[in-house]
Amino acid sequence: YGSLAGAVGMYDHRYRSGPHEHTWHRDHQIIDGGENGVHATDLVTREAIRVIEESDGRPFFLYVPFHSVHTPLDERGPFVNRPTQRDPKNEQRWLDEDRIRWFNDPDGLIQQESDAEKRLLLAAVHHLDDAVGQIVAALHRRGTRENTLILFSSDNGPQGSWSGNAYPDDLKLTDFNQPLPFRGKKLDVWEGGIRVPAFANWPARLQAGTRSSPMHIIDWFPTLAAIAGVGDVPSGIDGINLRPHLLEGQSIPERDLYWTWHRKKNRWALRHQDWKIVSYGKKTPSTEADWQLFNLESHVREQDDRSVNDAAKRQELHQRFLAQQARDR
What average pLDDT is seen over the chain? Predict the structure, then answer.
């Protein structure tokens, strides 16, 4: 249920103009009218709650890919027939901002932000946070909260700026979110593009605490398979079972994390332990000289290139890159 595209207009649920513009569906059947007039976050939340309430105590798996806070940002509150727009009397405010719930969190933190575009992003976050709270409340009502594992993750680093007009009611936004304290943003293989927050919550099984070891979103498949006791996962997949790490405090096995980007593969990175090599360019890195080298423990902002002082380490990571690259073919 939802959209077959990654981003849609928040209230009319259309993708970009073209053959895939109308994708709002149930079981791959396009819903006539696209359930227009209700924010996509609210529609997805309602569906998630429906699944929980109909589970009747049986185990279930619920995947909830919210469209927020991806662009387009559009938080209309009760003014559903009017796209989010600037107040003509004050360009630093959104029209009727004071009357829209999502711009006014209980602690007043959103209104302390002077930048209107950042306030719009914060309003979308507030809306999303409320949606997650509704889903958790539904678990409480069904008596399954304590024994439900909840995973939450972002998908990539922040956008930075956005030109607008790609989706319905899509505003142009400038510096509305930033990747500090990291270098880079969405689409980068710098830490700002690939390092995101995540949490796992399971009151009956998981002790409160923090984990600083790097993991990857692909790890959730073998992890959930192990927790659910479904047996062996297919051989040769990427990702590792994190169940011993989360539930028993064991260390994550040593491994390489490897990234490429774009059809022309003009961005590459590989991380091993706290060391990371990065290369941007038009050709595939073929020698160690094509890489910059960083130690993320001492310089997480990737500004201190260690290629000269730690040439042997760069050579080691280059060889690891070649091994990973060979698996792509």
Answer: 94
